[in-house]
Amino acid sequence: MNTLEEAKKAVIEDFSMYDEWLDKYEYLIELGKNLESYPEEKKTDDKLIKGCQSRVWLDWKIDDGKISFIADSDAIITKGIISLLISVYSGRTPEEIAGDDFGFISEIGLKENLSPTRANGLVSMIERIKEIAKENIKPAESEVLTAEDAKQLAPLYDNVILAIKQVYDPEIPVNVYDLGLIYELVINKRHEAYIKMTFTAPTCPMADEVLAEVKKSVSDVPGITGCEVELTFEPPWDQSMLSDEARVELGLD
Amino acid sequence: MRINDVREQFPALSQKVYGKPLVYFDNAATSQRLRTVVEKMENLAFGSNANIHRAIHKLASDATEEYESARDKVREYLNAGSREEIIFTSGTTASINLVAFSFGEAFIKEGDEIIVSESEHHSNIVPWQMLCQRKGANLKVLGINDNGQLKTEDLPSLITERTKLVAVTHVSNVLGLINPLKEIVNICHSMGCPVLADGAQGAVHEKVDVQDLDCDFYAFSGHKLYAATGTGVLYGKKHWLDKMVPYQGGGEMIATVRFSGTTYAPLPGKFEAGTQNLNATPALPVALDFLNSLKDSELQQETESVKEYLDEELRKRSEDHGLGTLHLFGVPHGTGKKIPLWSFAVEGAHHEDLALILDKMGIAVRSGQMCAEPLMDRFGVTGMLRVSLAPYNTMEEAEYFVKSLDKAISMLI
Predict the structure, then answer these.
(1) How high is the pLDDT of residue A119?
(2) Is B136 found in the same domain as B121?
């Protein structure tokens, strides 16, 4: 089997054979028509990709640490697009998929040449594929910790929390930790920190800066080898998430 | 006058998309803008730009005159009884919402009924659903037959003494069928029920005489009849409008304001709160003049032959069975009439795929549910492809479209 990079390169080459977008569509239609058939009984709502105007079903299984996808759509060009995506990403490890930037899509100009609704559909397809990959990474991180591992991790947790407490919300004089913005904090055996956090409102104009600050502050903790910060708004933040210290600080008690 | 003379009045039509001449066949969604409409707006914006009805300075009085003379011209165009019956809004949707609120507040009580038809677009369904929810009233639906025509014969049995309003489209935006509005109004009035007509498509293609039709309300948008977006009209019979409560509160809809209570301005100001679309609404008469100019018999003959050609070609392709066959929706029978609009599904080819390929050929058509989901359910499809013409669409464009459609279908099946 070829590598992910080889597969992407092959797609880019195939696309570059055609000058006209009409011909490129013809190529996508061929891909759609030749896509392996998808079982009717799996055309269920939970397999539908949300955000597409035409219906797209995506299913997957993991064998030997590699994910394989099957898909279908009632619109043939969309089917061609999903076929292209799964031909590139099937048979890869979750880490490979999650770590990919899907940049080859813009290289072939696909997104730009779709109608806005279908371009959104393409984004949704990519998001779903990434999501599936991420879901399959997590178990690996919750690997069994030995007593020795735990002993080494314990002080790191304290220090990482202290580091997060150095970052303040730009509008409220309370640090992001006590505000209750940190939803998940995991440090794995390799001492990489993984943080899932939110903001008090989805419209926070400083969001990018705050995320970068958290990442930097945590990365600077001695012993931490890497840090990943992910943003979520599920569940949305509310005041009950404030720590007792923050309540006192804000005069809420 | 010839089609090409009409074309010249629309700068947008001469552009190319993806290097191919634009073929704009999505006129039912919005038409292209008349050069003269935009010029009028520009003159107002750079000249008589002042808030209307308020100040005594020269600019304000010019602007007010422009705005109010537009009302006179719309009255004349619709043959309304008085200028007070013409309310300016931001479009059909706003006009219908105004009635749903203001008529609803005044006349709808728990257990009352409102009737809409199965072929309405969302703008003539949802405001009534919201009203029914607010008041605990019931929404009833007048069905259509398999050809897409309203089952007008069901109306007398559907209307009860609790029915307070029938809201029906003059011309369906999906089927293009012209509903027998006058007959509907007759039936409803004979049973004591007023009628609102959604004229979003009707005002574009049909001569509307509100006194002859005798409808109680008629709503339409400027942007579909070559005028500006954000302009629209609600015609309402004075005796209804007088009894309705204001829709929005604010500037210019008041007579006196005290904290102890406010009295409202007389019609039409009562329904025109806040600063109006004072650069665009006065351009509406420019578009109405243009509509009047289309009555030219030479032009009508030419546009009619384009319509006939397309109708014939599309019907031909719907006679077979199997892959690639067209399913046309809204084929009139008997004396039924249709505007130059066709919606169809193609056996074995998805509407979205067709629209995407046609787009790359330079052709703008609509695909999807066309803001009329209940109608899609009625015909059991997830969407359709819609082709809608304006008097600036030529025979050459129609021929190119038919060729392109054939090509697109052959690519897909």
Answers:
(1) 75
(2) yes
CB contact under 8 A, B352 and A78: yes
User: From chain B, which residues contact A within 8 Å (Cβ)?
Assistant: 18, 349-350, 352-353, 355-357, 359-361, 368, 382, 411-412
> Is B215 annotated as catalytic?
no
Q: Can you give the residue ranges of every domain in chain A?
A: 4-135, 141-249
**Which of B290, B310, B341 delimits the end of a domain?**
B290
B358: distance to nearest CA of chain A, Å?
9
List, in sequence order, every residue forming a beta bridge with A70; answer none if it has no partner. A59
Q: Measured between CA atoms, how close is A214 to chain B, in angstroms? A: 44
Kindly report the CA angle at B236 between B232 and B237, in degrees rounded to 5? 160
Range of the domain at B269: 37-290
Q: At residue A68, what are phi and psi to the nearest 5 degrees?
A: -120, 140
Chain A residues within an 8 Å CB radius of B18: 21
Q: What is the DSSP string of B204-219?
A: HHS---HHHH--SEEE
Q: Which residue has the higher pLDDT, A205 or A60?
A: A60
Of B219, B165, B171, whose CA–CA distance to B195 is shortest?
A: B165
User: C-alpha angle B173/B186/B376, rounded to 5°?
Assistant: 25
Q: In this complex, which of A22, A26, A76 lies closest to B350 when CB atoms are compared?
A: A76
Percent of chain B with pLDDT over 90: 84
ipTM above 0.90 for this complex: no
Select the residue of B18, B353, B382 nearest A77 (Cβ to Cβ): B353
Quote the Cα angle for B284-B288-B291, to 5°: 140
The helix (H) or strand (E) run that includes residue A70 is strand A66-73
- Residue pLDDT, tens place only, A2-34: 899 999 999 899 888 888 888 889 999 999 999
pLDDT digits (tens, 9 = 90+) for A160-184: 999 999 998 877 888 999 989 999 9
Output the six-digit token pair for A132: 């599936």
Q: What are phi and psi of B407, to 5 degrees?
A: -65, -45
Residue A49: DSSP 8-state: P
pLDDT digits (tens, 9 = 90+) for B25-63: 999 999 999 999 999 999 999 999 999 987 789 999 999
Domain A4-135, second-level architecture: Alpha-Beta Complex (3.90)
Burial class (CB in 10 A: 0-12, 13-18, 19+), B304: exposed
What are the φ/ψ torsions at residue A63 (nearest 5 degrees)? -130, 125
Residue B343 CA to residue B330 CA, distance in Å, equals 8
Chain-centroid distance of CA B303 in Å reads 20
The C-alpha of A74 sits at a distance from chain B's nearest C-alpha, in angstroms, of 7
Residues in A touching B357 (Cβ below 8 Å) = 22, 25, 77
The residue behind tokens 């399913």 is B327
Query: First-to-last CA distance in chain A?
Result: 62
Q: Smallest Cβ distance to A115: which of B350, B356, B412?
A: B356
Q: In the CATH scheme, what architecture does the domain A141-249 have?
A: 2-Layer Sandwich (3.30)
**pLDDT per residue as tens digits for the range A154-165:** 899 999 999 999
- Same topology between domain A4-135 and domain A141-249: no
Our measurement of the distance from residue A117's CA atom to the centroid of its chain's CA atoms, rounded to an integer in Å, reads 21
Q: Which residues of B touch A22 (CB under 8 A)?
A: 357, 360-361
Structure tokens that stand for B258 in this block: 């005290």
Domain count, chain B: 2
Give the integer Cα–Cα distance in Å for B240 and B196: 12
